[in-house]
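Subject: sequence -> structure tokens, single chain

Hey, anyone have a minute? Need the predicted structure for the following. Not urgent.
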Amino acid sequence: MLAKNDVGTYNEREGIRVGELAMTKLTLSVDEAVVERAKEIAQANGTSVSAMFSRFVKSMDSPIPKDFKIGPLTRKATGIAKLPPGKDYKEALADALAEKYGID
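Reply:
Had a minute. Here:
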């Protein structure tokens, strides 16, 4: 039986999960270097890219705990960067990520 947060074992050749839940195939368009790095990370951690992706998505769905405390280094860095006039931090972050990953 799989634990609540366990993503099980994925059989890539058969396209199914070995465990309780059925798997649905998902095709993503990703830069080749990202795919290779994801495979390396998965292998180094004894898991699959599918399992890593599943854990990532589940982690993004988790709310930040109310008792979450910002570390002292982060607190000191707060306010160092100045945003361009008329832009909020979400727009600035989106622009920076788009530039970094070559997304238009």
